[in-house]
Specification:
By secondary structure, the chain is mainly alpha-helical. It has helices at residues 12-18, 21-24, 28-44, 50-69, 81-93, 106-142, 162-187, 206-212, 222-227, 230-257, 284-307, 322-345, 350-358, 364-375, 379-396, 405-411, 425-431, 440-454; strands at residues 147-152, 155-161, 189-190, 217-218, 264-265, 347-348. The strands form 3 sheets. Strands 1-2 form a two-stranded antiparallel sheet. The radius of gyration is 30 Å and the shape is elongated. Residues 20, 24, 80, 106-107, 110, 314, 316, 318-319 line the site of arginine. Arginine binds at residues 20, 24, 80, 106-107, 110, 314, 316, 318-319.
Length: 455
């Protein structure tokens, strides 16, 4: 491939460490699209003849067909996808193939291909995030009024509704989708035409290839064009954050599925059995989603470490950008699909949730708020009185709603029976009508807002 400069062959170990076709064959579609646009532009710019362009386009079409049919010969001796395509093109159309690489280098070629691959991955991911959000919305709507305990420190805090809890994830995944969209906007500039690093002496039209490939514009600095991988880093950062959200939801499903919680059930479709313990139904899919977050985070770290300290412009180190990126998106896409499936499958046990929602003196804040509202106590004093009420209930072995009025009046003689109205979990959630609060009406309003947003 290197023409006159080399007389010897690479050592086997050189080839072993250098070869990338095993993984960069995943860039085949992007490589062909880039070559097509480049050939059309070279012809229009008068750099190659119409006959040569026609031959090149015909050859590229045949290569595309061979790849689709699984007959394309991916060969290690041609190192990577770019040279594999070019070598095959030469076999198919002869010397005209050699004109395709005019005003182009593998440096801008790989920057282009990889950018387009990441752009596609961001688009697919954004669509999958939306599908997951829709699954969450449907469950949230059905359970806008289903009370459950809200937790801080994984200790019962205040009652919330299951719908509200699920809507929290709709918000998180909404920001994730926005992050992918932002990353896409920033990466949507075409590096093609930067050539090796300095630009090209040929009268190329970078605007034309940028447009043909769906980019907003060409990149403005040729060095940056071939040296930049922050489009991949940014996408991997977005993927890591999204995976973090997925793993939190996965963890909650695992917790909720335990018999001790018993908040939700997953069907046989999303659970596995045990080879020894016949009673088991394990939330393996949730556990795997929880674990796969490690891949996205590792990939971000991996590529950051590859790029850190690299001098401008291209170095072969950058060939190591692809595997972590492919792995991260494969894992993320599978996780998003599996999570959407699990969410749709998830059946809450409303009774168990309601029971738990009332436990742990979860309406203590409601009691304190009542003292503030009705008796005009400063909140700090109300907090103190309520703490004493909780202590008393604990001693008597009852919950707050079970405390006799006399007990409450011993703490403050002005307390009336009306206080019991705020001590149930249902009353507690219904009262939290502030914007974004857990009151079922608020939850439904947010569901509507999101439905419109996702429509
Ligand atoms: N396979 C290479 C990569 O993935 C393509 C670019 C090679 N460029 C070079 N100057 N060796 O980075």
């Amino acid at each position: 491939m290197w023409g006159g400069r080399f007389s010897g062959k690479p050592a086997e170990l050189m080839q072993a460490i250098n070869v990338s076709i095993g993984f960069d064959k995943r860039l085949a579609a992007q490589d062909l699209a880039g070559s097509r646009a480049h050939a059309a532009m070279l012809r229009k710019a008068g750099v190659i003849s119409s006959e040569d362009e026609a031959a090149i386009q015909g050859g590229l079409a045949q290569i595309e067909a061979e790849i689709a049919a699984g007959t394309f010969p991916f060969r290690d001796e041609y190192e990577d996808i770019h040279m594999n395509v070019e070598a095959r093109l030469r076999e198919l159309i002869g010397p005209a193939a050699g004109r395709l690489h005019t005003a182009r280098s593998r440096n801008d070629q790989v920057a282009l291909d990889f950018r387009m691959w990441v752009r596609d991955a961001c688009d697919r991911t954004a669509a999958q995030i939306k599908a997951l959000q829709r699954a969450l919305l449907a469950k949230a709507e059905a359970h806008a009024g289903t009370v459950m305990p809200g937790f801080t420190h994984l200790q019962p805090a205040q009652p919330v509704t299951f719908g509200h809890h699920l809507m929290a994830y709709v918000e998180m995944f909404g920001r994730d989708a926005d992050r992918f969209a932002d990353a896409r906007t920033r990466m949507n500039e075409s590096p093609l035409g930067a050539a090796a690093l300095a630009g090209s002496p040929f009268p190329i039209d970078r605007q034309m290839t940028a447009e043909a490939l769906g980019f907003a514009r060409p990149t403005a600095n040729s060095l940056d064009s071939v040296a930049d991988r922050d489009f991949a880093l940014e996408s991997l950062a977005a993927a890591s954050i999204c995976a973090t959200h997925l793993s939190r939801l996965a963890e909650e499903i695992v917790i909720w599925m335990t018999p001790q919680f018993g908040f939700v059930k997953l069907s046989d479709a999303f659970t596995t059995g045990s080879s020894i313990m016949p009673q088991k139904k394990n939330p393996d899919a949730a556990e795997l989603v929880r674990a796969k977050a490690g891949r996205m985070l590792a990939s971000f770290t991996q590529l950051s470490v590859v790029m850190k300290g690299l001098p401008l412009t291209y170095s072969k180190d950058m060939q190591e950008d692809k595997v972590p990126t492919f792995e991260a998106f494969d894992a993320l896409e599978l996780s998003l699909l599996a999570m959407a499936g699990m969410v749709a499958d998830l059946e809450p046990n409303a009774d168990a949730m309601a029971k738990a929602a009332g436990a742990g003196f979860s309406t203590a804040t409601d009691l304190a708020d009542w003292l503030v509202r009705e008796l005009d106590l400063p909140f700090r004093d109300a907090h103190h009185v309520t703490g004493a009420a909780v202590k008393r209930a604990e001693t008597l072995g009852c919950d707050l709603a079970g405390l006799p009025l006399g007990e409450l009046q011993a703490l403050d003689g002005r307390i009336s029976a009306a206080i019991y109205d705020v001590l149930t979990p249902q009353a507690s959630v219904a009262s939290r009508r502030s914007y974004g609060g857990t009151a079922p009406d608020q939850v439904r309003a947010q569901v509507e807002r999101w439905k419109e947003k996702l429509a």
